[in-house]
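HOLO CASE FILE
Compound: adenosine-5'-diphosphate
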Amino acid sequence: MTGLACCRGVSVVYGRGEAEVTALADIDFDVGEGETVALLGRSGSGKTTLLHVLGGLVEATSGTVERASHASYVLQSANLLPHFTVIENVNFAAHVASRESRAGLGPEELLELVGLSHRLDQLPGELSGGEEQRVAIARGLAQAPRLLLCDEPTGHLDSDTGARVLDLLETLQRQFGFGLVLATHDSGVASRLEREVELHDGQIAREPVEA
Ligand SMILES: Nc1ncnc2c1ncn2[C@@H]1O[C@H](COP(=O)(O)OP(=O)(O)O)[C@@H](O)[C@H]1O
Ligand SMILES: [Mg+2]
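Model generated. Tokens follow.
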């Protein structure tokens, strides 16, 4: 494998018997180094499950998954620790990862990059949705990922704020060169990434052939 992740014939089945749900059915999926890929699909199509497989949070029921690197997550709800300040949230992630961020940037510098230097000592509850999501991005980058997995990161934001968060992700991706896989149900969002993969009932519906 030359890229960041490689899935071959991956299926994920949740539950047993009558409760059995096939979330992914025989998926082949690759992420190249520094590549940006959108996972496009309706609710229930398997996007989150595929992100979890890529990040190693969900085990494939069958098939093979190879991962070259560790991944960070940015979720639809920022999921910040509510009783910790902005800087503490990012510090905590950096500490857990116990490594320098990719460009050697510390938590304060990452928060400056996402435009939140003036919010370091605030609690998540005092931030707007867009600001919370920018903290979540800084936190993701604090773990120095080679692969950033974003699960509907703009799903709870109004379209202007969402567009700004996507601009930011794009800028940071260019700067740091991490691979990005972003799940969305919004084809406008998906079309901003280099490659689009459409999921439909746990299967890849369409993947344009690369030149
Ligand atoms: N932990 C789980 N247990 C049982 N079924 C699940 C679980 N997680 C997801 N599913 C089911 O798997 C399918 C795919 O879900 P998901 O990957 O969350 O799709 P998406 O992110 O595209 O909405 C859905 O039918 C969903 O209900
Ligand atoms: Mg989902």
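CASE NOTES: Residues 1-69+146-211 form a domain with the Rossmann fold fold (CATH 3.40.50.300). Residues 47-48, 151 surround magnesium ion (ligand 2) (CB under 6 Å).
CLOSED: yes
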